[in-house]
Structure formats: C-alpha cells, structure tokens
Specification:
Layout lengths: L2 H15 L22 E5 L5 H14 L3 E6 L7 H11 L3 E6 L3 H4 L5 H18 L5 E4 L6 H4 L3 H18 L3 E7 L3 H13 L6 E5 L13 H4 L4 H4 L3 H14 L5 E3 L6 H4 L6 H19 L4 E6 L8 E2 L25 E2 L1 H12 L4 E5 L6 E7 L4 E7 L5 E2 L6 H5 L2 E4 L11 E2 L4 E5 L27 E6 L3 E7 L2 H11 L1 H4 L10 E2 L2 E8 L2 E11 L4 H6 L6 H14 L7 E7 L8 E6 L5 E2 H10 L4 H20 L2 E2 L8 E6 L2 E6 L6 E2 L6 H11 L5 H12 L10 H19 L2 H7 L1
Parallel strand pairs: 1-2, 1-8, 2-3, 3-4, 4-5, 5-6, 6-7, 7-8
Antiparallel strand pairs: 9-10, 11-12, 12-13, 13-17, 14-16, 15-17, 18-19, 19-23, 20-21, 21-22, 22-24, 23-24, 25-27, 26-29, 27-28
Helix pairs in contact: 1-8, 5-7, 8-11, 11-13, 13-14, 20-21, 21-23, 22-24
Length: 732
C-alpha cells in the first residue's frame, strides 16, 4: 500500500473511532454568530468578446455581489481570461483565483516534467496576480478522478508546489476543493497535507444540496430514505461537520466555493425549473448563513444555459463538468437573459450578510423560520418545503403582522398582505428594536398541498369561526369576490339529481363564475359515504381537500388537470359531507373513453385513432414518470380536447392520487393501465400498452394481460351485485 493511501485510510479510521463523523444536534443551526459581510459570491467566466467582460461586470455590480471565483488554467495568461481578470481587479472585486490543472497533466503529476511545468505556471500566475487577488484556490473536484485526473500522490505533488509558492509570497491558499458531501475525502486529504506540513489557510468544499432535491431535506443518499430522518444529515449538519473536521486539522475556516441546481435535473419532476432554481438558491444561502460554519457560500456559474443565474442560449454542454472547470461563456452578451435566481441571490446578498443570526424559530419539519438582526432591522426569512403551505395567521400575532414589511424572494415589496407562506421564501422586516416570536405550534397547514408557481395567481387562505379554505386569485379583490361567492354559506347544497352533472356518492354541478358570469365553475361535494368510509375517512383530509391536493400535485409536476379555484370545509371536521371543491370547467372536452370507442368503431379513422392512443399513452407515461399513481384512471377521468390532428389531455377527479419520490413503481403503473384499458377491446389494449412501453425504459410487466382479465371479472361481478337489493342496502 502506498504511503499516501495508508495515511488517508488511517486518518479516516481514527476519525470514525473517535466519533468525528457524528455531531450531536448538528442538524440545528446555532444562534449568535454574525454572517460575514461578503458572504455571497459567484463563479464567473468570459469569452473572446470584450463585451462579455463588460456585461458580466455590469450584472455583478447591479446584483451587489462583491466576491467572484475565476477558473484559471494553462494558457489563460495569454488569452481573454487574463484580460477579464485584469478588468475584475481594476473594478475592485474580491477575486478568488482558482487554479485548474488540465486532467491530462494532473494524471501525470508523479513525473518530474509535469511537476516542473506546474511550478512554472504557478510562479508566473502568482508573480502577475498574487498581490492583487484575495485568495488562491488549488484543487478541483479532487474526489472525482474521472474529472480532475489526480491520484493521491499526484495531488500531493501538485499541492506541495502551490503551498510552497504561496508561502513565499504571503498569498492566502484555499483548498482542497472536495466536491459534494464526502467527508472521508476531507479527512483523508487534510491528514495527508498535515503530515507534510502543507495545510491550506482555508478549507474548501463544494457543498451541494442538489442530490437531496431540496436544501433543507435530510440527505437520503447517505443511508437511504428510511434512515435519513434518523441520522438527520441536512445542509446545516453537513456544513458544521465539515467545519469541525477542518478545525480538527488546524484549519477552522471553511468556504463552499461552488454549488448549483441544474435545470434538467429539476425538470425531471418539476416543470417550473427556473422558479424552483431561484427558490432553492434563496433557501440554500439562508441555511448556509444560518449554519455558522461557513465563511462564504457561492453559486457555481453566473452565466450558463444549464445551471447559470443568467441564460446565454442553448449550447452543447462541455465534456468536462463546469464544477471542475468553468472555462468560458458560450453565448454572446446580447443574448444574456437573467433568470429569477439572479434576483434571489441579489436579495439575499443585500439583506443577510453582516447580520447577527438569532436562530431558527420553529421546531417542526416542513416549515423554516430564520431570524436575523441588523443595525437597521429585524428580518425573518420564512418558507415551507415544496408543495406545502403555512397560514400566516398560524405563525404570527395579528399585531406583529400589522407592523411588518413583506419583501418577496426577488427583492420586490409585496403590494398586499400575505395569507399563505409557501416554498418560495419571503422576508419579513420590522424595526431593529422589535422582539418578534412565533405563535405556539406554528406549522404548515396539515394535509394540504399547493402548486405555488401558477403564473399570475396567488393562494389566499380564509378562516372564520365555522369554516376554512383557500382560493386562487389574481389579487386580493378577486380573492374576496371568490370567497364571497363560493363560501359554504353561499354555495350551499347540490341541486339534486336533476340539476347535477352527477349525483351518487359525490354530487357534481356547475355554478356561474363570479369573475365572469358567462363561464361556469364545477363544484364537487360528497353526499354519502359507505359504512367503512365513514370510519376510515375520519383519518384523512376531507374529500374536497384531497381533490385540491391531487390537482395541485399534478400541476406541480407539469401534468394538466382541471384548474383548481377553491376548497372549503367545516373546521371541526365532524360532518364528512360538509366540504366543497371548486375547479374550472374544461370547455369543448370529451372523455377519452368516448373518443377511443368512436375511433375503434369507425373504420375510416385508423390513423387518427392511433395518434390519439399514442398521445394518451405518452400523457399517462409522463404522469407515472413524475411519480403520480392516479389510482382511478378510468377513461371518464381523462378529458380530451382535439386541435386538428393533435389532442390535449386533462385529468379530473384527482382525489385518490398517491405520490412517489422516484417515479411510479411498476405495480402501481400496471394498476393504472388496467383501469384505463378496462373498456377497450383486446386490440385497443394492445395498442395502448405498446405505445406506453415503447418509450425509453419501458417494459411491460409479466402478467399484465392476466391482471386486466382479472379486473374484467371483478367488474362484472360488481355490476351483478349492484342489482341485488340486499347488497345495495349493506353498502350504503
């Protein structure tokens, strides 16, 4: 075993035996520390066009971001990178110069020729810029050999050169640039550097949370989803543990020089990727500041089509990941388009750095309330996890809310009082002398899901002595109009069988839309429950809330459903029928079962029928791939609107939906397919199954046809029983 590997392994074994990978209550942010003034930073690059330099500098100035990280490699001293570096220094930015060795050179750093070439590059760079930069960072994703190219011995040789040259010049050195949360690398590398008296001045780790999906989630990649809530490795614990590891080796300063969420990864489940990127950035930065462990936390690339705060156009992604080497900007300055995440970072940068952190004010999961105090203001940053909501009246006293200024995630002052806190952070601001706390039991609204990012619409929560509910509206005036018209006291009971679209266990009928009397809204209300449902449903949210939740979860994942308008229910929940769900009416739509039947019996339309089946199969497959198990996927619950040769699909009756984190499992998919194919003949079923499983990753499960035949038998028996008076009496 090579000496470097022996040191690496011995250090990790010692850390494990001494319990240094565990930190009691490490998931809780400690209060009392001051967030550094220049806490926020960003990685920058340019290209051959000098106009790009000016555009990037203008964006940085307008965003109030004082610290930048620039990647610098062989040959950059003679090209546009050096030109851009000179411009950044001339403009007074605090520059971290990140030295990046080409992977083909890093792979040969055990050879004298490569070492000497590296030394010459480091010397030339420090002689030219060392006195003017804030930091020099060495190492680049060193725990990813296929990106960086290092062996342990090669990395040690490269680091020795940089450490020797920076010491001679008094330049602050940061490293070793481990990427993601892999503390065995931090322990092993720091032990190796300490053994050779080569420790950095600042310990760096690219502290990603992308793999957790949301910044505040427990990391399921460590020991799995089941154990994640037990070991509680969230972002705060990770930062605090890494800081302690560094301190164990004599390097107490910790920075995270790069992290990001890529838009394609977000889009696997959520279509509103740019909005979610901005949400995640704001939440990530607040948690990093709250941890008290980090001297700075920076976003990865400023400009990039895949993960940048600014979009520069659609270009092929480079073979080498930008987290290893952010080499250039592909697009031109004229094509730059700021994303919401840029405004979110700017709002954080002008609000939180320099403040004193006073702690996380709530205790439960799903809601985050963090308090920061500045000389001129007390600031609370509040949000929920994805898809959840908290009623503001459950969080703060009315007198405290009356004195608060509300600022949104992107820095705009909110024009009207907020009733609901969501996954998009908001900043509450009071005079600095105020002491503001939360109400006892502050938490999210139980059993409620929302789709936060519906363009132009806001959620408004309503509560009175007997009822509570929510409406979606463009503004407060429209919300009041909807609440007045759709409140249980006004909307009342269904009109009966003759006046309803459906009247069975649930009544469904239409009412005029108060915003436009020429349009109708659809109302759903439970009428009666089976005996067993009367017991089981008391343990669940009301039917109205389940319909609202199912629709919200579909829309959050980019699956079309009849647009929700409102839900209301009795607060005490004693009457299971006292709840109403209201959604938009879908005009000019036909149940998919009818269209499929029409094309099956019309010999003149085989091509249009196949297109309809293929489109429907793609729609269902996308729903399943995004983790939705519908559980009642009959042809009547999928509405079709035809547009020439094309068709769009909309789901209704969404109250039975179940959710999965990584796509719907095969058994649940099959159950939905059995339902949707039930009234199709053998040829129709075969066509649908063929189209569904013809997409990548598709493979029909063994026994699918048998499951369909079994469901046919079950349905025929059920239809026969319904004709029996004794069965009907027992059932109802």
């Amino acid at each position: 075993m090579k000496p470097a590997l022996r040191t690496f392994l011995r250090a990790n074994l010692a850390a494990l035996l001494r319990g240094r990978f565990f930190l009691r209550n490490g998931h809780l942010p400690p209060a009392g520390h001051v967030v550094p003034e220049a806490f926020a930073g960003v990685g920058v690059a340019t290209n051959a066009d000098p106009a790009t330099d000016a555009a990037v500098i203008r964006i940085l100035r307008e965003s109030g971001i004082p610290r930048v990280r620039l990647d610098y490699t062989y040959g950059d001293g003679e090209n546009h990178v050096a030109r851009f570096l000179e411009a950044l220094l001339a403009e007074g930015f605090r520059v971290t110069l990140h030295l990046v060795q080409p992977a083909q050179v890093a792979a040969h750093m055990e050879h004298p020729e490569a070492i000497e070439g590296w030394r010459a590059f480091v010397r030339d760079t420090l002689d030219r810029f060392g006195a003017r930069i804030e930091l020099l960072e060495a190492g680049s994703t060193v725990n990813r050999k296929r990106w960086a190219g290092y062996t342990l011995e090669g990395f040690l040789n490269a680091w020795r050169v940089v450490r020797e040259e920076t010491r001679q010049r008094g330049v602050t050195l940061a490293g070793p640039s481990v990427t993601d949360f892999e503390p065995v690398w931090n322990v092993g590398l720091l032990a190796l550097l300490r053994e050779h008296d080569l420790l950095p001045d600042i310990h760096t780790d690219n502290l990603f949370s992308e793999r957790c999906t949301e910044p505040e989630r427990w990391d399921h990649k460590i020991l799995g989803h089941r154990l994640a809530p037990l070991i509680r490795f969230n972002l705060v614990r990770k930062a605090r543990l890494l800081q302690r590891i560094g301190a164990d080796f004599g390097v107490a300063r910790l920075m995270s020089p790069a992290a990001f969420w890529t838009l394609p990864r977000i889009e696997r489940f959520l279509p509103d990727s740019e909005q979610k990127q901005a949400d995640y950035l704001a939440r990530y930065m607040v948690l990093c500041a709250a941890s008290g462990a980090l001297e700075a936390a920076w976003w990865g690339p400023l400009v990039c089509h895949r993960e940048g705060l600014v979009d520069d156009g659609d270009f092929p992604y480079p073979k080498l990941e930008r987290i290893t080497h952010y080499a250039r900007i592909d697009g031109q300055a004229a094509d730059f388009r700021p994303r919401p995440a840029l405004a979110a970072l700017a709002q954080f940068a002008r609000t939180i750095p320099g403040s004193r952190y006073e702690g996380r004010l709530n205790t439960g999961q799903g809601l985050e309330v963090h308090a920061f105090r500045r000389d001129d203001a007390l600031i609370h940053v509040v949000w929920t996890i994805n898809g959840r909501a908290a009623a503001v009246c459950d969080l703060y006293a009315e007198s405290d809310l009356a004195q608060a200024d509300w600022v949104d995630r992107d820095g705009a002052r909110l024009p009207e009082p907020v009733t609901v806190v969501t996954e998009t952070p908001v900043y509450l601001r009071w005079p600095a002398a105020q002491r503001i706390g939360l109400l006892p039991g502050a938490a999210t609204l139980p059993g409620l899901a929302i789709h936060r990012h519906i363009p132009g619409l806001t959620h408004y929560y309503h509560r009175d002595a007997e009822w509570h509910g929510m409406v979606l509206a463009r503004n407060r005036a429209e919300a009041d109009q909807l609440i007045a018209a759709l409140h249980p006291r006004h909307i009342g009971e269904p009109p009966g069988k003759d006046g309803s679209l459906r009247y069975a266990r649930n009544a469904i009928w239409t009412v005029p839309d108060p915003r436009d009397p020429a349009r109708n809204l659809v109302v759903k209300k439970p009428v009666k429950h089976h005996l067993h449902k009367k017991l089981l449903d008391r343990l669940k949210p009301s039917k109205a809330r389940r319909s609202w939740n199912g629709t919200a979860e579909l829309l959050r994942r980019g699956i079309r459903a009849a647009a929700p308008v409102a839900w209301f229910e009795q607060r005490n929940g004693q009457e299971l029928t006292k709840n109403w769900y209201v959604c938009e009416h879908v005009p000019d739509a036909t149940p998919s079962s009818k269209l499929l039947a029409a094309t099956r019996h019309d010999a003149r339309t085989p091509e249009s029928g196949d297109r309809l089946v293929a489109g429907l199969a793609r729609f269902v497959r996308r729903m399943h791939d995004r983790g939705i198990f519908f559980r009642d996927l009959s042809g009547g619950n999928i509405l079709v609107r035809q547009h020439g040769d094309d068709a769009s699909f909309t789901l209704i009756d969404t109250g039975r939906i179940a959710l999965f984190a990584k796509g719907t499992p095969p058994g649940a998919r099959a159950q939905d397919l059995v339902r949707i194919c039930h009234k199709q003949d053998a040829a129709g079923r075969e066509r649908f199954v063929h189209h569904y499983y013809s997409m990548p990753g598709g493979r029909p499960p063994v026994g699918l046809k048998a499951r369909m035949r079994l469901y046919d038998l079950k349905s025929s028996i059920k239809r026969a029983l319904r004709k029996n008076p004794l069965y009907r009496r027992l059932k109802f």
